[in-house]
Amino acid sequence: MAKKEKIFIFDTTMRDGEQSPGASMSLEEKIQISRVFDELGIDIVEAGFPIASPGDFEAVSAISKVLKKSIPCGLARHSKKDIDRCYEALKHAPRFRIHTFISTSPLHMKHKLNKTPEQVYDSIKEHVTYARNLTDDVEWSCEDGTRTDIDYMCKTVELAINSGAKTINIPDTVGYTVPSEFTKIIETLLNKVPNIDKAILSTHCHNDLGLAVANSLAGVQAGARQIECTINGIGERAGNAALEEVVMAIRTRNDLMPYETGINTKLLSKASKLVSNVTGFPVQYNKAIVGKNAFAHESGIHQDGMLKNRNTYEIMTPESVGVKQTSLVMGKHSGRHAFKDKLISLGYADLTDDVIENAFGKFKILADKKKHIYDEDIIALVDDSLIIDNKSNSIILKSLKVFAGTGEPQKAEMKLEVNGQIKSANETGDGPVDAIFKCIKKLYPHEVNLQLYQVHAVTEGTDAQATVSVRIEENGKTTVGQAADTDTLVASANAYISALNKMIIKREKTAPAMEQILDEKEKVRGI
């Protein structure tokens, strides 16, 4: 097989990424990130802007000593003082890059630099040459490139290469361009700049219109061979092209982009978490590649497809980016197939169809009440369904209203179906649970001893399911009822009713046996 063309990955997380408001990183944190980046296989690590502050200078210097495989790089404006400072920070490394830049768009030249195009042109020659005398690895960027006159850009790129630049970066500084336009810019440079073969073209796209990754990939397909990007896409304003996205796009669609990056993709999730923790910038749940939901499926249709063949709804494996496994998230959109698969994974392999259907119905009701369904929630539902089949219940809760608080007696209004007949009752009590239990006794008169009433939360949060256990005793026989619900009072009623239904079944089973004993005694008396 022919060797694939290499796309160089230039990471600017610690330079452009740190320019995000609030994303400042300490020296120790930058060194920690650098070690992970080195392991990740990033080609060039832009460690900072040495002239910006003593702290930035120290960080760039320390990182240049830490990196073993990645090439350290520092940023410098068209200023000999900037370039010297960059060199001093990087000179400890066996290989390093100086990245120098100047604006070339009419808007920037006039309002930012207050320079004419001729003055900018002369500055390119002076400062790129100066940087080249300090290192043989010089990168030059035409800031605001996508708003620069294309003929002027061609002229400046040719000069930068002649002055010693080996990498030419075309920044979409304000995230203004679109893929078709960026493609045309790269193609024009390749076709019109006579010495373009002596340099590598690079992309540096911002995400103001949400097109940073698309523009970067368009640039690669047009002929660029370096992508400047950041982990999690952090950066000024709306951020930069996300490293994990461009890398996985190339890997996943290698049929359309037959290139290689040299990135160990299994470390992408690790790098993402580290940068998120260091900066304090959370990764949005639906973020491509590294978001919490990137490999999570809740839709019943999707879960069913995933259980049959994971390729139905996943274009890459979670393992390929360092995520342990696909997550079938149980929620209100989940179907029976996924629910049954979850039950098997929780150890319920031998449930009857009736129990599964009963538990699934309760699961759907619960999923409408709370956002996150935990394994413990499902276990509680199944255990509740295993206690007794509703079809055999003598007593079924139909509705419950509870009035509680300060200043007035607690009151419960309840409807029960007792042996097929609907009955209603209102009772007050010493607390809402006492009022509920009094309603049950009124609607189904009985005398039992309440031996245990216990409540515990199945999962964390104010929307957690409560599991209630009730144990009752009658003539030496005991039964235990359990019920789970996000409403503790509803769970309490159902738990008591469950225990009572079991007691009724025990009575029915005990009665024939007692009758048989009495019959035997009568026969003995007759003899």
Rg is: 35 Å
- Count of the domains: 3
Number of separate strands: 18
Structural class estimated from helices and strands: alpha/beta
Largest sheet: 8 strands, parallel, barrel
CATH architecture of the largest domain: Alpha-Beta Barrel
Write the layout of secondary structure elements.
Blueprint: E1 5-6, E2 8-11, H1 27-40, E3 44-48, H2 54-66, E4 71-77, H3 80-90, E5 97-103, H4 106-113, H5 117-132, E6 138-143, H6 150-162, E7 167-172, H7 179-192, E8 200-205, H8 212-222, E9 226-229, H9 243-252, E10 259-260, H10 268-279, E11 296-297, H11 300-308, E12 327-328, H12 336-345, H13 353-369, H14 375-387, E13 395-403, E14 410-418, E15 421-429, H15 432-443, E16 449-457, E17 466-474, E18 477-485, H16 488-526
Parallel strand pairs: 1-10, 2-3, 2-9, 3-4, 4-5, 5-6, 6-7, 7-8, 8-9, 11-12
Antiparallel strand pairs: 13-14, 14-15, 16-17, 17-18
Describe this structure in words.
This protein is an alpha/beta fold. It folds into 3 domains: 272 residues, TIM Barrel (Alpha-Beta Barrel); 91 residues, no CATH class; 90 residues, Double Stranded RNA Binding Domain. Strands 2-3-4-5-6-7-8-9 form an 8-stranded parallel β-barrel, surrounded by 8 helices. Helix 6 links the parallel strand 6 and strand 7. It is elongated, with a radius of gyration of 35 Å.
